[in-house]
UniProtKB/TrEMBL annotation:
UniProt-listed GO biological process terms: cell surface receptor signaling pathway
Subcellular localization(s) per the UniProt record: Cytoplasm; Nucleus
Domain SH2 per the UniProt entry, residue ranges: 589-687
Organism, as annotated: Cyclopterus lumpus (Lumpsucker)
Similarity comment: Belongs to the transcription factor STAT family.
Coiled-coil region: 134-168
Keyword Transcription regulation: yes
Keyword Hydrolase part of the UniProt annotation: no
Gene Ontology, cellular component aspect: cytosol; nucleus
Origin superkingdom: Eukaryota
Alphabetical keyword list: Activator, Coiled coil, Cytoplasm, DNA-binding, Nucleus, Phosphoprotein, SH2 domain, Transcription, Transcription regulation
Listed name of the protein: Signal transducer and activator of transcription
Amino acid sequence: MAVWIQAQQLQGDALHQMQSLYGQHFPIEVRHYLSQWIEGQLWDAIDLENPQEEFKAKRLLDSLIQELQNKAEHQVGEDGFLLKIKLGHYASQLKSTYDRCPLELVRCIKHILYTEQRLVREATNSSSPVGGMMDSMSQKYQQINQAFEELRLLTQDTENDLRKLQHNQEYFIIQYQESLRIQAQLTSLSALPPADRQLREPALLNKRATVEAWLTREANTLQKYRLDLAEKHQKTLQVLRKQQTIILDDELIQWKRRQQLAGNGGPPEGGLDILQSWCEKLAETIWQNRQQIRRAEHLRQQLPIPGPIEELLNELGSTITDIISALVTSTFIIEKQPPQVLKTQTKFAATVRLLVGGKLNVHMNPPQVKATIISEQQAKALLKNESTRNDSSGEILNNNCVMEFHQTTGTLSAHFRNMSLKRIKRSDRRGAESVTEEKFTILFESQFSVGGNELVFQVKTLSLPVVVIVHGSQDNNATATVLWDNAFAEPGRVPFLVPDKVLWPQLCDAINMKYKAEVQSNRGLSEENLVFLAQKAFSSSSNNPEDYRNMTMTWSQFNRESLPGRNFTFWQWFDGVMELTKKHLKPHWNDGAILGFVNKQQAQDMLMSKPNGTFLLRFSDSEIGGITIAWVAENPNKRMVWNLMPYTTKDFSIRSLADRISDLNHLLFLYPDRPKDEVFSKYYTPPLCKQPSVCTGGVGGRGTGGGDVLPACLSVVWLHSVSCGRSDSMLDADGDFDLDDTMDVARHVEELLRRPVESQWGGQQS
């Protein structure tokens, strides 16, 4: 749950403290209307003490102002007009206040968020899930930062020790040279007369003995210094490995998982700024220690002293190289994934990024990245280091790109903007597998060197699975494959294995996430909606959610086998609902005007207890991407519920749902009891004409003529049919109302239009 939602529940002194955070410097209205956006930004990634970070702060300020302006533009109605003016004023005010000092905006918002989180935690005694989550996140970040501080101190300590070792060794060499000079003097004494030799030799021998004794002691000391330094480096590398594991195997993997779920409509994976800053700190620390180990090895070669140090230094050198190799290869990532449903002959884009590229100066000799499409089997072989003989499974145009360094952001990335899949080579399919179940991946690979060609890296990374299609009609089945893979793939899997069956609640989470994203709505699927879907998926009649908790759904049930009595799968039906809602029904779904997930019997049970003219909107069971109107009314024989033939995208491209409901005069109340004009009038468009002189086709249902019928026309045709006892002919085989079968009464329209409609319906509407 968002912090702002929790903050609004504060009381007493905590509420006053929260309110005091806001004012002209940052209005509370901005916090309220942009709460989700504000809490989604990485404010902590900006170092307020670093003037170089000002460009990041400026980008956040510009984004904040843009979000405010967008919010203002979408306000409608009388209250919306005032809010629109107010939000526009706040946008100008914030720009004026912080345009020259954007870091102050970051400081302000960081202070607000920190204080709100503290107040929420204190108010709930840290028992709130939000408080716990924030606590956990702040603790994790704190632990990472503490580890970096420990590494900084360890590296500084070994640097000091290395300098001390170097100084001592240099002095040792000087003394060693002195011993050689003494030895040379002793040797030269042989040329002197015996008397002179006896006079000078004792002093030189004594001096030589003193120096040699010192050299022996100092050699042992140097060896100890070297061993101590090596042990300290071992400890540093242990801390480095642990820190790198946390960042690469936990934080980066979690980011990739969020990126994968974002492909299903989950929240954005978030920026890479914090991760990059951590990876750069790792790279800097690793490189410093690598240079120290190399200097220690140079000192050893300069002054060889027998002992275990040579083996230790070799081991340290190998370890530090492994660590930096793991860092470089793991931080070559796909920042923007290619589309997971990939149509041939269609332009697509992707972005790859090297998180440590700037810190390691890779951009000094910009590497080229190549993109290749490979099959699932080729991906498996690649991860096993088996030779794939440079095979590919298709041809991608514009598949080479040079990495560019962006000075302002410090990022090194390659932007593939105009790739196109020219052709695809499919493998033999297994069993009932269709082409829309076959998974491929885009392989991005590059080669570059660091440290003046000291180390050469070959880096590769695989995109999320892609399904290749050649026609738009394959899109919905391909999307099902992608959705299942994104939702249920496990970290570290063999490409691209997913479970064949999952628990129903897991699937509910996945399709709810997808639904909200596609419809762009905060109104997701309710528990009642999910029970309806479970009934459809499992051909069950139970209304108890608990009955489905432990049930599993297989991939075949999801999108391979047709629903009972239908020629489409569960997913195809659900995808049709999403598409229809996204394109034509979004505002009505957001308003709560569409119940949608209700079957015909449920609709009848709900409406029969309501006044005549009460109606509801439900998705068609029998047609993909259809919505029908069910309403209760009297006919001469009995009171009953009617169902219009479903409307589809084709119908709504001619006339909107709101206008069609407006046209149907016998629809009075949206279930349970809301006057229809109260709900839909803001979406009505003016009628095309005022004189209803022709009736040629279906506003209410689907007509056979070439245009829309006028509002009164359909109402009268329907009323006439009922009053003439022709209601049965207006229903399809499933009891749905079909205007096609009422065209034989069109000849009566003119006569009926001359009579007051009220007299035809009389008191039956009550």
